[in-house]
Input
Amino acid sequence: MLACALVSLIVVFLIGLFILREGLPAFSEVGVTALLFGRVWRPQQGMLGIWPMIAGSVMVTLGAILLGVPVSLGSAVFLAEVAPNWMREIVRPAVELLAGIPSVIYGLFGMIVLVPWVRTTFKVPGNTGYNLLSASIVLAVMILPTVTSVSEDAIRSVRREHKEGSLALGATKWQTIWGVILPAARSGITAAVILGIGRALGETMAMIMVIGNSVIVPSPLNANPLTIFLRQARTLTGNIAVEISYATGLQEHALFATGVVLFVLIMLVNSVARLLLKERAA
Amino acid sequence: MMERLFAMRSRVGAESAETPRDQHAATHLRRRRFVQNVAFGLMWLAGLVGVVVLVAVVGYVLWSGGSVINWEFLTTPPRGGLAGEGGISTTIVTTLYLVGLTLAIATPLGVGAGIYLVEYAGEMESRSRFVRWLVIVARFGVETLAGVPSIVFGLFGYALFVVAMQFGFSLMAASLAGASLILPVIIRTTEEALKAVPRSYREGSLALGATKWQTIWQVVLPAAGPGIITGVVLGVGRVISETAVFYVTLGGSASVPTSLLEGGRTMALHVYYLAMDTRAFDRSMGTGAILVLVIVVINATINIMSRRYVKRMMGNV
Output
């Protein structure tokens, strides 16, 4: 049974081993800097820079955090402090079910409903609807359950004495939430947001379906810098999924290198979140 | 500071109830109440967003996909290649195969690991430093695995099972990769379920002279059964809704695999192929509607089961 317990460790080890083994040739042949910061991805001509995908992943995650975190925190506070019981009985299962909806369904809904909406709402030349904004909206919904439930736990675990002390001093319920509970739950909420970032970076299928997948470093469509979100992009995850089944040789190695970058990024993000949560528990 | 100034002024001022201080306090309170109402309004809105989005997505998919669903859709295989005609029968069968295989691999491993970590790890740790180290590392493995994004599982499955072990794009490769994906889910729920079994059960059984293993097998596991099954059902849901892993390990052939070494496509993959490759959006929606229905049913099952389980545990403690 110890063997069973070690299986996950072995799998982690194998994942690391195989992805590194297949990815390292790309690092050595293309060069670390050229691979990570190269702005051109043209596998046929041996140009294998994944910077556009790094930028795409970062931008779409940023968009999802900007859109999703305020709503998620709001609903966490709502569930923990504000909602009457009957309402909580509706909202919590709904949020849980949101987490269970397959990502292809979000992608499909995005393609059919969101993309046309984004295309017709923002009338900017070059806006196809398949862009960072659509992807960010989809992703914001997908991280909502994670961020909501982890921050709700953090809010609930604030000691009662803090809350009661504040109320006894004559603060209103909202002043107590804003001035006492949220600051006390800060590290847990930060962990929730970071876990959300981890989820966002790892999402694949829904991103392929709505982000357009063109390999360019996102830049604004016109003088308004916000139109950068109307630009097509490709994520690290999408790069792997779109090309792996037909890639060979150096291109295949470069895709594994993309996986290494993704793996390292997410491990970093998750360990920060884990540290924060441990710190709070201690 | 302002507060104190007002307080001083009111002390100097008249004795009547309507001192400036009272007035100040009243407007202050009114403002605070106003701010609270606005803030709570926003919280309600935020809380409703989840519900509204869920109803919109599920409602839209069921409503617009429902129109293509009929008996024929469910019982005929996909045909017409890029035209995306036909039904989804083969994808349902492939999904069932994949779920069965993946769970057959992941359940024993996951439950075994959970039992070890909860029931044995503690006492083993105190016996040897090496085992203590192993347990710490094993826990680290579970935590890390739970955070790995699914496309990385796919990449790993592709490199190890599809290419290195020469399974090709096949049920075998996909279910091994899928099992790695759901392993942490099953381990964690098993751990939770075992931890929820009261100590007194174990102590009672041991006091009656049962061995550790008899206690676990005949007392602890039956008591934790529903919790463990919840984990397995969660795993079923993950496999049914997962796409990225199987996209790079299962191939995508529309026929039913006749051996472990043949590929196929699950319902979720079918949704993707129809939407992205053939643009047969109506059929994609139809498949999506079935998928959503299955997920809703699975979620409801889990909720009912865990609620009953909690009630039973509470009742017995």
Observations:
- The radius of gyration of chain A is 21 Å.
